[in-house]
Amino acid sequence: MVRVGHRHRPFLHIHALSGPGIIGRLAPTIPRPLRSIRAKLTVFTFGLMAAISLSIFMFFPPRMERQAESALVDKAASIADMTAFAIGSSTDLHDPGEALIILNGAAQIDDLVYSYVTDLEGQVVAEFNRMPDVYVVPGEFRMPGGISGDRTVYRARRSVIARGRTVGTLHMGFSLDRVATIAMRSRLMIAVASILVFVLGL
To answer: Is the pLDDT of residue 197 over 80?
Structure first.
C-alpha cells in the first residue's frame, strides 16, 4: 500500500500544479502589449507623426501654388498696364505698325501666349499669338477675363487710351503652365519632407 501511494504521489503533484488555482494566479503577470506605457506612447507618437505629416502635405502645396499664381497674376497685370499705356502714348491705332512693334516687344516674356489690340468696332489692329490653334480669335475675346476655368491661362484686358479718349482694347493671355510645374514640384518636395518627418519622428 505504501508503494502504491508512493507511485501515485507524482501524478497528484503534477495535477495540482496544473490546476486552475496556479494558472489563475500566474495569468495577471503575463504582459499585454497595449497596457504598457511604452506601447501607449508608441501608438500616440505614431498617430501624432502621421497627423503632422499629413497636415504638412495637405497645407503647404496648395499655399505655394496660390502664391505662385498670385505672383504671376500681379506680373501679368503690370505688363498689361504698361503695354496698354505704351500703345496709347505712341499711336491712336490709325497706324497699327506702332502697336505691332510694342506687342513684339512684350512677346519677349515667356509666359505671354497672345496679345491683340482691337479697335472700337472689335476689329483686330495688331496681334501676336504663339498658339493660334488653341487661342482663336474672336472666340478668345468672348471668354471672361481673369484666370480661365481650367486654370491654364490668365486673361488681362486693358483699355487703350490715346489723347484722353478710349480708342481700343488690349487683350493679353498669360500661360499658367509655370504655376502648374511649380505646384507639381512643391507637392513632390513636400511629400518627401512629410515622409522624412514621419520616419524621423518615430
So the answer is: no
| Short-list 65, 88, 85, 66, CA closest to 77 | 85
Whether the per-residue pLDDT at 165 is higher than 70: the answer is yes
Pairing relation of β-strands 112-119 and 124-129? antiparallel
Q: 62 or 8: which carries more pLDDT confidence?
A: 62
CA nearest to 49, candidates 163, 196, 174: 196
Cis ω before 138 (30° cut-off from 0): yes
Distance set, CA 22 to CA 13, 100, 117 (Å) = 12, 100, 97
In whole angstroms, give the CA distance from residue 16 to residue 18.
Answer: 5
61 vs 110, higher pLDDT: 110
User: Distance between CA 122 and CA 119 in Å, rounded?
Assistant: 5
Q: What is the pLDDT of residue 202?
A: 67
CA angle 34, 39, 41 (to 5 degrees): 125
Q: Where are the alpha helices (DSSP H) in the chain?
A: 2-17, 20-26, 37-90, 96-106, 177-201
Q: What are phi and psi of 132, to 5 degrees?
A: -65, -25
* pLDDT tens by residue, 85-120: 999 988 778 778 888 999 999 989 989 999 999 999
* Crossing angle between the packed helical segments 96-106 and 37-90, to the nearest 10 degrees: 160
The residue type of 75 is K
